[in-house]
Amino acid sequence: MTNSYNIGGNSCWDFATGATIASAANQTFTVGDGITAISTITITDLLSPTITDASDLRIAIATSTTFMLWDTTDLGAEMTGSAFDTGKVANPVAYEGGGSVLRITVSDDFDPGETLVVSALSFTSFATATAPLSGLKLFLGGAADQTGDSTDSKTITIKGTVAGVEHAGGQVTNDIDTSETSVSGAVLYGFNLTLAGGENMSVTNLVFNLSGVNGIAAGDITNAKLYVDYNGNKTVDGGDTQMGDAGTAAVSGQTGTITFSSDFTATTTRDYLLVADLASIGFGDQVTIALTPNNVTSSGVTSLLATTPASLTALSAVQHVKFPRGGGVIGFAAPAGQSIAIGGGPGAGAEDQEIGSSPGFFPPTTSGGTFDEWTTPDYAFASDGADATAASSWFREDYGGFGFSVPGSNTVNGIQVKLELSSTNPAGGTISVALSWNGGTGTTTTIETSTTLTESDTVVTLGGPSSTWGRTWTPAEFSDANFKVRLIAEPSLNTVNVDAIQVKVHHVAGGGGPGGGGEVLAPYFRNLAGVYKAGQNLILASDTFVAFIAEKLSAALSLF
User: Fold this and answer.
1) What residue numbers bound the domain in which 435 lies?
2) Is residue 86 part of a domain?
3) Number of C-alpha atoms within 13 angstroms, CB side, residue 319?
4) Mean pLDDT, consecutive 10-residue segments, the chain of 560 residues?
5) Is position 36 within any domain?
6) Cβ(458)–Cβ(348) below 8 Å
7) Residues 208, 308: one domain?
8) Buried b (16+ CB within 10 A) or exposed e, 68-87
């Protein structure tokens, strides 16, 4: 029914004589969606029938504004209504215009008021985001008809997508390992927002998660900013643009957040950087930062619909830590007795100690990697009087290639690192050790430090049979590709030296006690162990006991 005016300008009403099309509901799709069912469509021919067998009926998608197609593989629609009941329409349906038009064959003219209800068909190929629009039109004038007879009373919206993924250049590295107590503009995290569907995204909230916080308070993190990293070099350059206002840090115990709650618009796929100022950074202070894509709240500027990423899996985390400059262990508190520093420095003129070759200890065969800052680092492979050296604070060197083979079902109970160390005149300085399980990308939160060095070689053992250095290890993490020992130099106006490194992994089968599966002894050591056990458990006459010992030692020595 339409409202019109007569020749005298008086308002009057008359009844529409065409046909109408109406979907059952407004529809929303997402760019990249698969084949998706249509909302049920009802077509009604009004008082003067216009749907005839001469022209059939066509339902076209307005592809200039609604970027999708019919699923042309589906030829069997579900039809109901009086026009179907009277046999005026039937399957199969057909498609024209490359899938933009659905054609339903009409075998007889519709009667006034007859209806056709169509369902069980689908749309596909959702290519570009659109605003809510009437996306379907009814055409009754044949294949050449360019004038729609009716427009759908419901709307179709296609929204774009945004995904949080890794920064194209990889994650940033530790940016607070400095001798200063504050860092301005520290690059703390890198990530990428990937957009699809040609739609700009309004980001209204973004939250980074903090964990493993030690020594850093919320007030120590200020001036937090997000920058577009246009050239992807993980550095804020002159052309990089700040997005939104400053973020806010919150810390409670060892966890916290950095939250950005001011809007910014992402216009295309870009890399981003989290940058902040950090103050009051002490030795051992640290924080691990990660971003979960679902913590990026966004909506489409065109579709006006929420586009927050669905993923609840955090992107790669980065640990920022200020390594120690002196003795002791940093990181989370370890159980008593886990940190072992033995073989303290001898006095002036004392003889050099040598690292020896204790069972189960293995030397490295490679140096360098993530850090390769020492001089002649390969000299630390063996105890031969030639040293790897470092004369600058914070110089780091990674060592690997230990050749461990830990059975996949074993449990790792502890790790010992044995070092043969010294310093040049004047005596002093220390060397700290951290362990890596992923090729040097990350290191343990527990970092152990030697005793003060002297000019004589001193053997120092860090860790122990029950020290896991603050983490739970898996056997695969001791492969040559994964396990690394990182040395951190802290000279005292001199040069620190390492003549040799050896590492022992204590692991057991089936969850047994320390040493149960990790100490593989050569046959002669097994015999010597048997002597010791026999001596513990047998009470013999002196001559019999001496004979017993002689027998065991003779058997052991025959194996050399």
Assistant:
1) 329-509
2) yes
3) 19
4) 47 60 97 97 88 93 96 96 95 96 96 95 97 95 90 96 96 89 96 97 97 93 98 95 97 96 97 97 90 97 95 92 55 32 38 82 93 94 92 91 93 96 89 94 90 93 95 95 95 93 92 42 35 36 41 43
5) yes
6) no
7) yes
8) bbbbbebeebebebbbbeee
